[in-house]
Amino acid sequence: MSGDVSMADVSVGNTEEIAVEDDKMTILPGMASDGSAASFKIKDEDHTLGNTLRYMIMKNPDVEFCGYSIPHPNDNHMHLRIQTYGEITAIEALQKGLRDLVDVCDVVENKFRDEYNKGDYVQEEIA
Amino acid sequence: MAEPEVTVRKAGKDNVDVVLENMDLSLVNSMRRVFLSEIPTVAIDLVEVEANTSVLADEFLSHRLGLIPLDSSLANELEYTRDCDCEIYCDKCSVVLTLNAVCNTDSTLDVYSSDINVAVPARSDDSIGRPIQSSTDERGILIARLRKNQELRVKCIAKKGIAKEHAKWSPCSGIAFEYDPWNKLKHTDLWYEVDADKEWPKSKNCDYEEPPNLHDKFDYNAVPRKFYMNVETTGQLKPDVVFERGIHVLETKLAEIALALSKAEEETDW
Question: Is pLDDT of B269 > 70?
Fold first, then answer.
């Protein structure tokens, strides 16, 4: 099948896992050599972060695809896959996603604090 | 998308009712999950039974003690025992509580959570680890009843933990979570005998949203935008503290990943 792009044609940057010493984050084998696509293995995380991080990264117009999975319920790690259109690297997309999410959290926290302190709501008696 | 909006509808001693707008379901759900199971609190984790002549077995009593809500407003000052340098437990990673009760009368003696004492108030503020009392005139939770000559003498070691490990560490007794009360998005399929509209009670949150128009076509692009959340706590933490600490826990998780990512990036040298 001559028209098909086989896996061998895709330039692969790493064939081994890239792990940092504390193992929180691992870049799985098969990252594109230009960095535009990569899979990350994140230890001790689950749907709590996975789903919302996936959403935030997908919001980025430079990102073509982002998905997460929990490969097995017995293993406490999460996989995150990011593919970009090539304008930015997958690592940059993840960094931006993390930053954006922290910013949203800050906004929500500040708004809640302001609203709560304003006291403009039904207050049940405090014994 | 417009900026996130937060409206507090109602707040009390142990619950806060909020409406969150212009946020994604995934983020609000992350908040819910973190509030329920990842905010550190303190709870009795080790029980040394010196004397127990009550009718309750030691392990039954230990379990009951573990579930008693303890003041956790200063939980962040405590270390996790697993991160601590000590052998079993120490002042840095635990709070020691004692419970001593003997029944000397012919009538039964009720032992309440208010009978538990913080043994060594080592820290500057001794509020940490104190059993929660919803008001000053009540005696708290009934732990056991003793007959004449029965005795309880136990030493409890309270430790910091999160509810992912055991539900006793959860600062929330429940979180009410709802969106789209009119089911316009059809995320739920309401079972019915004859007519779903008549058989299902309407949520009170329906008052906060426009009822569906019968002639409108189904909007398949619509996404949930308004979330109703009522955070109810066990008293270990105040509800607004749960909200703030929960968001901090989420931010800490993100920061940890960002740190690990920057390290991993250094390793990619092509």
Answer: no
* Of A111, A91, A84, residue with least CA distance to B23: A111
Residue from the list A24, A45, A51 with its beta carbon closest to the beta carbon of B29 = A51
Q: Exposed e or buried b for every residue in A35-70, given b needs 16+ CB within 10 A? A: bbbbbbbbbebbebbbbbbbbbbbebeebeebebee
Residue A36 is part of which domain span? 10-116
Torsion of CA A110, A113, A119, A123, to 10 degrees: 130
CB-closest option in B18, B23, B257 to A98: B257
A61 part of a folded domain = yes
In chain A, which residue's Cα lies nearest the Cα of B33?
A: A48
Average pLDDT rounded to a whole number, residues A78-101: 96
ipTM score of complex? 0.89
Query: Are both B147 and B60 inside the same structural domain?
Result: yes
Q: How far apart are CA B37 and CA B15, in angstroms?
A: 17
- Tell whether B57 and B149 lie within a shared domain: yes
* Pairwise CA distance, residues A51 & A53, whole Å: 6
**DSSP-H helix ranges across A1-127:** 47-58, 90-118
Sign of CA pseudo-dihedral B211, B215, B220, B221: negative
Q: Which helix (H) or strand (E) holds B28?
A: helix B25-37
The helix (run of H) or strand (run of E) holding residue B47 is: strand B41-52
Residue A8: pLDDT band (50, 70, 90) is very low
